[in-house]
């Protein structure tokens, strides 16, 4: 455990995928129906409006990272340009957010593994996930980046295939006997905004939360090769990719299926692939959701550990958390975060005794991360 300096081991392709992977989570694959239920087809517009907010945040962070590439990123910017208390709150909000996200994702992995092994206690896969991802983060930052690159790639390929299949259904009748579905579902069943502006604004608040994770680009700055060039490239490229993937997938969902029947449909991704003849759709999406959950947990370990390292560097946590191993990894911070995420395994044992339904447990835990996740965004804009 020599020195206190992190290593610049992340490449341009890795940091772009880290941002994409951190933003595109389990919710898009399994939880999109809940958001659509609030606002109907106008959810497309909600994603566009939220995308504008995302654009402003990314541009603001990109400018600061370009001038001052550091691991503490937005927490350090809040300290320097606002007040040390602002930086302290920002760092802890980010740590809490990602540990809670990691806990929720561990719960999700355990539940989705039961698709293949129904009798398997859901906490067992959670333990293995934590051990695997802790090891990946402890080996080197490059190993973390490579894990996240392939996790994100699986999600992105699935989304692209879903969009292509959906456009085939909408415009060419692929899997629908050659009869194009058309755009009628956007205006039928109560209209484009069936629940009015109240439903729209409620959905908008959830949609904004779904973009959380994109700020991971800033945290990678301190461990990125040629940060000025790579971060600028990542910021400019990631914004549009996120919007295309999210809006493209949501457009397909609300166009192919009546919005008011989605809750009973299950996963729109499974239904769409099944429609075009992919018979293993359910198992395929289950695998993708597991990788999405592991990606979220992986990002959580990385992000929280680097923020703990930053606080320790600033003298706000014990110096042991500034220790960096010979491979450039702040091992003690990684271990501390993984221990925090392990609480998710304990919750997966205890909460089923109190709350009915595994999905409810995931939602309750995950929802605790949304408000803390907004704090870094506002601090980025204020800085």
Features:
mainly alpha, 383 residues, globular, Amino acid/polyamine transporter I, 0% strand, 17 helices
Structure at a glance:
The chain has helices spanning 12-23, 26-39, 43-67, 73-81, 84-113, 123-139, 141-172, 196-210, 216-220, 227-256, 262-265, 268-275, 281-313, 331-341, 343-350, 358-367, 370-382.
CATH evolutionary superfamily = Amino acid/polyamine transporter I
* Largest sheet report: none
Under CATH at level 1, the class stands as Mainly Alpha
Secondary structural class: mainly alpha
Assembly status: single chain
Tell me what the CATH architecture is. Answer: Up-down Bundle
Task: Produce the secondary structure layout.
Layout: H1 12-23, H2 26-39, H3 43-67, H4 73-81, H5 84-113, H6 123-139, H7 141-172, H8 196-210, H9 216-220, H10 227-256, H11 262-265, H12 268-275, H13 281-313, H14 331-341, H15 343-350, H16 358-367, H17 370-382
Helix pairs in contact: 1-7, 1-10, 2-8, 3-8, 3-10, 3-17, 4-5, 4-17, 5-6, 5-13, 5-14, 5-15, 5-16, 5-17, 6-7, 6-13, 6-14, 6-15, 7-10, 7-12, 7-13, 12-13, 13-14
